Amino acid sequence: MSARWPVSLLVNDGRMPRILLRPLVRRDQREWEALRSVNAAYVGRWEPTPPDGVLPRVTFANYVRSLNRDARAGNLVPFAIEVAGELAGQVHLFGVMRGSLQSAAAGYWVGERFAGQGVATRSLATLLDHALGPMALHRVEVNVRPENAGSLAVVRHLGLRDEGTRLRYLHIEGDWRDHRTFAVTTEDLGGIRVIDRWRGDPGPSAG
User: Fold this and answer.
1) Euclidean distance between CA atoms 89 and 138, whole angstroms
2) What is the pLDDT of residue 3?
3) Tell me, what's the pLDDT at 199?
4) Alpha-carbon gap, residue 21 to 7, rounded angstroms
5) How far apart are CA 117 and CA 110, in angstroms?
6) Do 51 and 174 form a contact (C-beta atoms < 8 A)?
């Protein structure tokens, strides 16, 4: 079973500001490039790099096209994070595996101006609920560098299970970096949404 694409998700937790998860589109180019440029140092230190040091040149139009192609194929669920109508970052579900595994991984980034406001936490929670609900996945993991205090706070706020450290897991900033793996399965939730568990709210499933 897979959820349709394209799809948009409103973060439904009763909090402000309003957050919408939606597909990135070509008309986002100017705003996306400005956001990435301003946050190059803030975001870049956590992002994967090619071991050979050769960064492929991809136009924004081709980037958006590839996201949609992989999403329609069921391999990826790529959302732009929109906060009160303003582009704030991205949150993706990737490496979607079906069959006996029914699993995926999640990643996210937000601009520095939006950090510490619950934007990443609320967005990731909504993505996880989509993955473990409409997409009918069983498990989602998030891999975080031990030095990334902001991302560690996000997964802890959401109560994801710490599964330990993967040594030299991902190539970032010119070397193979350790990552800590956090995960959630449907059994962990007991019928409660991730976003409701974070709020301490039993949610609609409780009656």
Assistant:
1) 26
2) 63
3) 65
4) 9
5) 10
6) no
Residues in a beta bridge with 185: 139
Mean pLDDT across the stretch 26-54?
Answer: 94
How far is the CA of 88 from the CAs of 28, 94, 129, 177, in angstroms?
Answer: 11, 20, 20, 26
Q: 165, 179 in Cβ contact below 8 A?
A: yes
Residue 122 and residue 110 in contact, taking contact as beta carbons nearer than 8 Å: no
* DSSP string for 111-135: -GGGTTTTHHHHHHHHHHHHHHTTT
The 10 Å Cβ neighbour count of residue 79 is: 26
92-145 pLDDT, tens digit each: 999 999 999 999 999 999 999 999 999 999 999 999 999 999 999 999 999 999
Q: Tally the residues of the chain.
A: 207
pLDDT in tens, 47-68: 999 998 788 889 999 999 999 9
- Determine the 3-state secondary structure of 206 from DSSP: helix
Q: How many CB atoms lie within 10 A of CB 149?
A: 9
pLDDT for 205:
35
Residue 6 and residue 139 in contact, taking contact as beta carbons nearer than 8 Å? no
Give the three-state DSSP class for 20: strand
- How much is the mean pLDDT over the chain? 93
Tokens of 42: 């803030």
pTM: 0.93
State both tokens at 60.
């924004």
**Residue 202 Cα distances to 10, 191, 193, angstroms:** 19, 9, 8
